[in-house]
Design a protein that fits this description.
Layout lengths: L12 H23 L2 H8 L3 H4 L6 H16 L11 H18 L1 H13 L4 H28 L8 H20 L4 H4 L2 H13 L40
Helix pairs in contact: 1-2, 1-4, 1-6, 4-6, 4-7, 5-6, 5-8, 5-10, 6-7, 7-8, 8-10
């Protein structure tokens, strides 16, 4: 029988860097920020830790590159709607967000929140926030477009529209990470989001059936807490 010859394909520097970044994102989703060690990243791509440093100068450099890649991927969510009317586009983006998050929970969403939660990684947390501002800037541009076309009132601050979107998508992210999906499937988020969007619409075209914004009600997490503080007549704790 003819002997089998194993062929090795040498990867380019760019290909190897992309492979390392992809591995880091997968590990962040599985092990968190502290568990995404240089050794684990190197094992995932078949390199020694020393060889890894030929492509990135430090672990933080790998994590920062992984975050930048995740942020670029996060912008793909904006492609889930092409509706010409901006308020309709925002509504469709909201409706597609939960499914998008489920598909990217481990590679984009969890790494983002994990990095922000580590105060000792101040440089990395700052980069995570700034990368998300890319999304914020695009949402501001979308709101400006809506004002130009007349679907959003001209007196509405575009920043208000952008932060409304971020507020709802981030709370959906958190709900999914807390396994509180009933807040999404039960319509709590959709009803309140629709009310908020209607507040941006020109009054002549606003939906009269939409009431005032009600409080978002996430199911309480299963966390043990101490007894409530005894309060005085003005609602302030005694002894203060």
């Amino acid at each position: 029988m003819p002997s089998q010859v194993r062929t090795y394909v040498r990867k380019t520097q760019a290909e190897r860097r992309e492979e390392i970044i992809d591995a880091a994102l997968e590990l962040l989703g599985e092990y968190g920020l502290e568990g995404t060690t240089v050794s684990r990243i190197a094992d995932a791509v078949g390199l020694t830790p020393g060889a890894l440093y030929r492509h990135f100068e430090s672990r933080n450099a790998i994590l920062a590159a992984a975050n930048a890649a995740a942020a670029r991927q996060a912008l793909s969510w904006l492609d889930t709607s092409r509706a010409p009317e901006v308020l309709r586009r925002l509504e469709e983006l909201k409706e597609t967000h939960a499914a998008w998050t489920k598909n990217h929970l481990s590679t984009i969403v969890r790494p983002f929140f994990q990095a922000l939660s580590f105060s000792q990684q101040a440089d990395l947390a700052g980069e995570m926030t700034l990368e998300r501002i890319l999304l914020y800037g695009l949402l501001v541009e979308m709101a400006d477009e809506g004002k130009r076309q007349g679907s959003i009132r001209p007196d509405v601050e575009s920043a208000d529209v952008a932060w409304t979107m971020l507020m709802f998508i981030w709370i959906e992210d958190i709900a999914l990470m807390l396994d509180a999906e009933e807040a999404i499937t039960g319509g709590v988020f959709s009803r309140n989001f629709h009310r908020m969007l209607e507040s941006f619409r020109p009054r002549s075209t606003a939906d009269p059936s939409v009431g005032e914004l009600s409080c978002l009600a996430l199911p309480p997490p299963s966390i043990a807490v101490g007894p409530p503080a005894v309060t005085g007549a003005m609602g302030t704790p005694h002894g203060r």
